[in-house]
Known about the structure:
This protein has helices at 15-32, 40-54, 61-75. It contains 3 helices and no strands. The longest helix is centred in the N-terminal third of the chain and has 18 residues, at 15-32. 8% of the residues are buried.
Amino acid sequence: MKNDTILPPAKPIEQSVRQQHIVDWWIALQMSGDAGPTTWEVLDPLAAEVTACLILSIPNLDEAERLTAQALLLMQGGEF
Length: 80
C-alpha cells in the first residue's frame, strides 16, 4: 500500500542561525586543534574565505556553507 502522506515543508532556518552554525563550527575546529588528515595550511585559507563571506553587509551564507563543507571533507581525508 502506497503512503501518500505529504509532510509540510520545514521552516527555513533563519539567516542568523545559519551564520551562527558556521561560526560555531569553525570555533570548535580551532579549539579542538585537530585538522584530521589535512593541515592547517590548507584549512586556514578556507577559514579566511568563510570570514570574508560572513563580514559582507549581506553575508554570503551559501558560499560560507560550501567552503565549510569543503573543510569538513578535507578533514575526513576527501578531495574536491
